[in-house]
Amino acid sequence: MNSTAIRQKLLFHFKINISKSYVCQIRRSLGWRTQRCKYCQLISHVNRRKRVDYALWALRTRETFLNVIFVDESSVEMSADGKIYFYKPTYGMQYIESRRQKPKHAYKVHVWAGISYRGLLHICIFNGIMDSVIYQHILRDNFLPFVNSVFPDGYRLYQDNDSKHCSKSTKAWMTDNHMIDNVMKTPASSPDLNPIENVWSSLKQYLQNVAKPRKRDELVNGIVDFWEGLSANQCGRYIDHIHRVIPHVILNEGGPTMF
């Protein structure tokens, strides 16, 4: 309940008329603090159980993920969001409002890639929606050459349970290309268990704070520059993060971990 609602209730029920600032002052004196609500993915009871089972399996087998390739896709868009900013009023100087220029029609691209302890795949940048056929083409042209070169001793593929990953067409294609036995069984609704999600977060921060693209080519070039700047050691640090997440999955009974 915010200060306005508290003030209105006091006025309606007790005829006490105080300001919102006084309500805030009293609330702070009682030890209450404000915090923004953080949103997380809704996880069903069935998927919670599967997440716990996966985390327990990883701990029981002392999973290292040394031969695992984590793949995923994401969307990247040129946009401007309203951020809170701080300024110090200076007398005698003109105050300039904080404004961020925003493209009239935000340009969006989709990206797909993968990371492992031995390095990263080439990033695929594309428009439109990825379906099973496009996914199979990416695996053929990008994934298989990578594993044949970098993982001649065997690998495992970590992907989410998206329909294009699990379709009959994709499973048949993977079977024909001797991949199906290398696909890990992963719990649904578990972006926190795929380290590449943190890579996407770093990519978007890089675009916002460093590249600052204003045009389509600048957006694509910014994505490529970030990706080419990643090393195998950096990929390893992203993957190491999963060992922090797994215990929290169990402690939260399969619920969101906020990682």
From TrEMBL:
What Pfam families does its record include? DDE_3
List the Gene Ontology MF annotations in alphabetical order.
Answer: nucleic acid binding
Family matches, as InterPro entries: RNaseH_sf (IPR036397), Tc1-like_DDE_dom (IPR038717), Transposase_5 (IPR052338)
Q: Where are the transmembrane segments?
A: none
Looking up Gene3D superfamilies in the UniProt record yields: Ribonuclease H-like superfamily/Ribonuclease H
Q: Which residues form the Tc1-like transposase DDE domain?
A: 68-219
PANTHER family recorded for this chain?
SI:DKEY-77F5.3 (PTHR23022:SF135), TRANSPOSABLE ELEMENT-RELATED (PTHR23022)
Q: Can you name this protein? A: Tc1-like transposase DDE domain-containing protein
According to its UniProt entry, this protein's organism is Mytilus coruscus (Sea mussel)
